[in-house]
Write a structure and sequence with these properties.
6-stranded antiparallel sheet, binds guanosine-5'-triphosphate, 4 domains, binds magnesium ion, alpha+beta, Rossmann fold, Alpha-Beta Plaits
């Protein structure tokens, strides 16, 4: 295989709503590039891109897959992304190494939330887009409806390059207003005739050609001048204007296609080769120090790892882009995170499940290697003398959580290890054991995302796991002053136990004055501060602890034990066993026994006094509230809103944004379990949402009563 340099490479990312035909189009591109001599299909489970058992089972893409093709003496690296938003992490990695997105849209469905989301990701990640109206051979295909949707909703302005002559089942021709030709396909293997535009289409074609010319001229003063002078531009001039408009992310040229019948694929690839920005023009990689790393093969080598996947019989496969310099077979590089050497004994160009051995890859190219020792996604491998680390991919926040355990207790330990490693393959899955909830909590992008993981672990590791509702990390605090005494006394045979503690507690607020006097339960208590300790609690909020013992009622040496007793109860709050926060405690009296008093006695006395005081202090339970943002087609807005209201949501605002409604609400986490699934069934999968922690707020009294009851039923204190 030829060695391609940055100027001869294009790295494209196929994006678009679920099922729009990305994988099928990638297959047609690979066929046109002669990487395969027969096209596989989704139905027969033999595409290059969807090549895992789990993708076959679900008949959809789950992982972004890289495929190279050679076309017009250039190399086109295609990354085929999954359309489902549950797997959007893949788009973040793909766009890190891809320079341009190809938005594949289904002409049968019109503009969908998936198109909306994926074009937004491209925008967030600063990547230009080329638009493809696909499935024009479908029974329900409507180019006009699709264009209307794009015009109304696309964040980038569409510019028509092609329109179909006969869409629907008989689709076989379209007019290209850049080439000013009609293309007609004579078979389903990409064979095409280049014909003159029929007379009845000429006016329309000329009109669109003028729009295209004007759109191209806008981006270049010299072109604009030329256009005014001559009233037209050459094809090459138009291309050079489009090149700028696309690279600036101002316009999205629109193409026609049936990936399934391989119609339009070749023209699209030609345009990408000629017009889309390649590695030497696209924005440069940045180092973590902010240095620009140009795709220059004369520079010292640096590779960025954007994906790592374990494949049966082979082990870990590491996918990378050569950021600068070149990499040759057998090269030794240094991982800038670990400082360890890695030998790249084999290099491959990747075409999905096929890997083609190569001896060298140049700056801008994408490839993979195997058998690295400790390199993962987001690592940079660099020449030992010139270490550098590239800015990492910043993955989206999780928006779905569940508790997880092994079906068989015996598998628990093994499952723990497997789950711990999941993040290396899929950085959008977070797993952690919550000491607070005493559950293993797994977080991801949606229920489907987690179910796929479950199936994968069952298939590959033969371990069954179960998801269930995670506990909610409630917090407990108090609302008023309270007082309590507690005597711990035990006389059983040998040495006895004795400790007595008197305390006052009150709600802590920032900047409150030092305590001087309390009047509580008919008692008047004067505070003489002997000692003060203040703790920032790991789980948020504060504990203030005052020693106000007079006349040696309790020895100072027992104070740490008293504090410990209180801390134990803060750690496992008296109401529901959740963390307590924002409390001031004053120990003002107590009793010792000359022989029987010891630390354990005071710890227990303090613990129980604190619990009693807490329960009298107007205790309340606080729950985590999340900011939720839902994006839905307007027709579902009513349903989405009333569902949220049933979840105790506070609606904060609504706005319409290019055909979609956006709704912001504050929703208790306790009401969000399986929200992604409900939202999906309410809107036939057309809506999406994000969520982020906002604050802790008091739960309503009916919820508090329920929680209290549930806890007293289990409290063995
Ligand atoms: N009629 C018609 N059907 C198509 C075309 N392209 C794809 N399909 C069908 O649409 C379905 C989805 O195709 P895929 O290629 O898997 O779509 P995708 O965009 O990769 O889907 P995800 O990766 O799951 O988002 C399959 O049944 C294909 O056979 C097309 O051009 N015309
Ligand atoms: Mg796919």
């Amino acid at each position: 295989m030829k060695n391609y340099s940055a100027k001869e490479i294009k790295n494209i990312v196929l994006v678009g709503a679920p099922g729009s035909g990305k994988t099928t189009l990638a297959e047609a591109m690979a066929y046109e590039g002669k990487v395969i001599d027969r096209r596989g299909s989704i139905e027969t489970n033999n595409t290059l891109s969807d090549n895992t058992d789990i993708e076959h089972e679900y008949k959809r893409s789950i992982y972004a897959t890289t495929l190279f093709t050679e076309f017009m003496n250039r190399k086109l690296n295609i990354i085929d992304c999954p359309g489902s938003d549950d797997f959007c992490g893949n788009l973040y990695s793909a766009f890190k190494v891809g320079d341009v997105g190809v938005l594949v849209m289904n002409a049968q469905n019109g503009w969908q939330v998936g198109d909306e989301l994926q074009s937004r990701y491209a925008r967030i990640l600063n990547k230009p887009l080329v638009g493809v109206i696909n499935q024009l051979d479908g029974e329900k295909a409507s180019y006009e409806n699709m264009m209307e949707g794009i015009r109304a909703a696309s964040p980038v302005k569409p510019i028509i390059v092609q329109y179909p002559v006969n869409q629907g089942a008989g689709f076989n021709s379209f007019i290209d207003v850049l080439m000013m030709k009609m293309y007609r396909f004579t078979d389903e293997n990409g064979t095409r005739e280049e014909l003159e535009i029929p007379a009845e289409e000429m006016d329309h074609a000329l009109e669109l050609n003028q729009e295209l010319t004007e759109a191209a001229a806008v981006y270049d003063d010299a072109l604009m001048e030329l256009y005014f002078e001559k009233g037209s531009l050459t094809q090459d001039d138009i291309r050079s204007g489009l090149k700028k408009g696309v690279a600036n992310r101002d316009i999205m040229p629109i193409f026609c296609c049936s990936g399934k019948r391989d119609m339009g694929t070749k023209r699209l690839m030609e345009f990408i080769i000629n017009v889309a920005p390649g590695p030497s023009v696209a924005p440069k990689f940045l180092s973590t120090e902010g240095e620009e790393l140009a795709a220059d093969e004369t520079q010292p080598t640096a590779l960025f790892v954007f994906k790592s996947q374990i494949e049966q019989h082979i082990g870990e496969i590491t996918y990378f882009r050569v950021v600068r310099g070149k990499v040759t077979e057998g090269m030794e590089l240094v991982n800038s995170r670990t400082g360890n050497k890695e030998k790249l004994s084999q290099l491959f160009a990747v075409a999905g499940k096929n890997r083609i051995k190569v001896t060298e890859l140049m700056a801008g190219d994408i490839g993979c290697t195997v058998k690295l020792k400790g390199t993962r996604t987001n690592d940079t491998l660099a020449a030992p003398a010139t270490p550098v680390a590239c800015e990492p991919i910043v993955f989206p926040e999780p928006r779905y959580r569940a508790a997880v355990k092994a079906k068989e207790q015996n598998d628990e330990e093994k499952l723990g290890k497997i789950l711990n490693d999941v993040k290396y393959e899929d950085p959008t899955i977070l797993v952690e054991y919550s000491k607070e909830l005493k559950q293993t909590i797994i977080q991801g992008q949606g229920e489907h995302h987690l179910n796929i993981l479950k199936t994968k672990i069952a298939q590959e590791n033969k371990i069954e796991m179960e998801y269930f509702a995670p506990k909610i990390p409630y917090r407990e605090t108090i609302t008023k002053v309270a007082q309590a005494d507690y005597r711990h006394k035990k006389q059983s045979g040998g040495a006895g136990q004795f400790g007595e503690v008197h305390m006052v507690i009150e709600p802590y607020t920032e900047g409150m004055p030092e305590p001087t006097k309390y009047k509580v339960g008919g008692k008047e208590i004067t505070v003489n501060i002997k000692g003060k300790e203040e703790y920032d609690l790991d789980w948020g909020g504060k504990l203030q602890f005052y020693n106000s013992i007079v006349g040696g009622a309790i020895d100072a040496r027992f104070m740490p034990a008293i504090l410990k007793g209180i801390m134990e109860k803060m750690d496992e709050g008296p109401l529901t066993g959740s963390y307590a926060r924002d409390i001031r405690v004053v120990i003002y009296d107590g009793k010792m026994h000359p022989v029987d008093s010891n630390e354990i006695s005071f710890k227990l006395a303090a613990r129980n006094a604190f619990k009693d005081a807490f329960r009298q202090a107007g205790p309340k339970i606080m729950e985590p509230i999340y900011n939720v943002e839902v994006l839905t087609p307007s027709e579902y807005m009513g349903a989405v809103m009333s569902d949220l209201q049933n979840r105790r949501a506070m609606i904060m605002g609504m706005e319409s944004d290019k055909g979609f409604d956006k709704l912001n609400a504050r929703v208790p986490l306790a009401e969000l379990y399986r929200y992604s699934t409900s939202l999906s069934s309410l809107t036939s999968g057309a809506a999406t949402y994000t969520m982020a922690f906002a604050s802790y707020e008091q739960v309503p009294s009916d919820v508090q009563d329920k929680l209290l009851k549930a806890y007293t039923d289990t409290d063995e204190d």
